[in-house]
Amino acid sequence: MPPVTLLRLVVLSALLGILLVLSGCTQPDDADAIVLAVSQAPANLDPRLATDATSERVNRLLYARLVELDEAGRPTPGIARWEQLSPLHYRFELQADRRPFGDGRPLRSADVAATYRSILDEGFASPHRAPLALIERIEVLDARRLDFHLSEPDPLFPAYLGLGILPAEQIAAGHAFQRQPIGSGALRFVAWPSADRLLLERRRDGQLLILTRVKDPNVRVMKLLRGEVDLLQNDLPPELIGLLRDRPGVQVLMAHGINFSYLGFNLADPVTGDLRVRRAIAHAIDREAILRWLFRDQGRTAEALLPPEHWAGAIGLTAYAQDQALARRLLGEAGYADGERLRLSYKTSSDPFRLRLASVLQAQLAEVGIDLKIESYDWGTFFGDIKAGRFQLFGLTWVGIRLPDIFRYAFHSASTPPSGANRGRYLSPEADRLIDAARREPDLGRQASLYQELQSLLHQDLPYVPLWYEDQIAVLREGLTGYRLAPDGNYDGLAEIERTSPR
After folding, report:
1. CA pair distance 412, 170, nearest whole angstrom
2. Which three-class secondary structure state does DSSP give residue 460?
C-alpha cells in the first residue's frame, strides 16, 4: 500500500480512537506532579549496570557525573575538572559546589574511586567495563582529588568517565541501587510502587515528577489530552504528532536528533553477505520519500553512524540515492536476472509504526525484484534473534551514541556477540586496523581523520545501510514551560521544566 494511503488510514483511526475516549475524563493521582508518559519503563537504576535507554536517561538525573559531553561529543567538566599529567596519568578535582548525596552526605573522591573500582571488578560484571579496562589503578589524594593511572594512552579517556557516582559506603554494603538509587543528581528517588510507575523529586524545589509506562502510543496521546499526563517524548507516530500540532492547549517541540537508524545485514549469510545485494538494496530504497511521507519530514538522511556535526563525524560521503536501474543491474550481477526474484526475510519489532515502515521498504524493494518477507516479534524475541545472528536483514536504531568507541563495539572483528555488538559478523582487516590505530592515536585531529576514513570504508562495505537520524519530539500540555529537548533524547529537561498554571 502506498505510504500516503497508509498515513491517511492511520490518521483516521487515531482520530476516531481519541474522540471516543475523550468523553471519559479522569483525574490524575497528584494534581501538583508533572507526569511524563514513556513507552518503556526503566529497568535498572544502578548506572553501573543499566543498558536500556530509559534507565540511562533517568540515571542521568539521579546521579552526578565527573564528565559531560558537549554537542560535538567532546568531553567537558561535569562535577570535576582534570589535568593530564602524562599520557598515562590524569588528575581530577571535584568542584566545590557539587551536590551531596540524597541522604545528605557529601560526595567525595573516595566515592568516585569506589564507583569505578566496582565497575572494573570482573566479578561485578558491569557491561560498561570494557572502555574502562585501561585504568590500571585509582589513587585517592584527598576528599576532592584523585588520580587515574592508565595502562595505555588514550586521549579520549576523560570522555569515558560519564557514569553516575554512587556512595562508597553503600557500595561496600552491597546496597541494591538498581531498585533504591542513592545519587547526587538534580532529582531524588522517592518511590517505585510498581513496574509502570516511578516517583522522583526535584531537589532544588521539591517538584514531584512521575514517569508512567504506557506502551501504546495512541493511549499515551489520549491520556495527554485527558489531562492524565503532562508530557510525552518520542515513540509517537508522525501522524499523531501532526494531529497534536493542531490541537489547542498542546505544545509540540522539535529538534534535530542524532539517533541513527539503519538496516543491518548478516554477512555470514551467502545472500546478504554479497556486497552487490547490499548495494542493490541501498539503491532500491527512497529514503527521501520515506522521510517526507511516513516521517512527515521529522528526520534527516544519514550516511554514517556519527552525525556530521560530531567532532569525528564523516562529511562528504556520496549518498546512496534511489536508482532502480542500478539496483536491478547489481542484482543481475549477483545472479538474479531474467525474472528470477530474490527472496529475503526482514526482522523487526511488533511496534505498529515499525511495521508500517517495513511495509514501505517491502514495496520499494519489490519494484527492483526483491520479495521481502516481514517477520515481526515482541521486542525481547526480536532483539534476542538479532544478538544471536538469526536474521538476514533487520532494522534498528543506535540511541544516544556520543563516543567513537562505538566503532570498536559494533564493527571490530573481536566484537562479535557475546563480546560486542558486531551482530552482522562484519570481518574486515582494514576496518580493524583503522579502529585500532584510532584508539592508539594521541592527537585528536589525526584520530578524527582515522575515524572519518573508517566511516568511508563502512559506507562502501555496507554492513549497515544508513537510513536517517530521527528528530527529537516532545509534546507538552499548556501550563508547562522550560523543557529543553536534547539531541540524544535524554530527559535532562525535567530538571528545568516548570508549571506556570494549574492543571
Report:
1. 37
2. helix
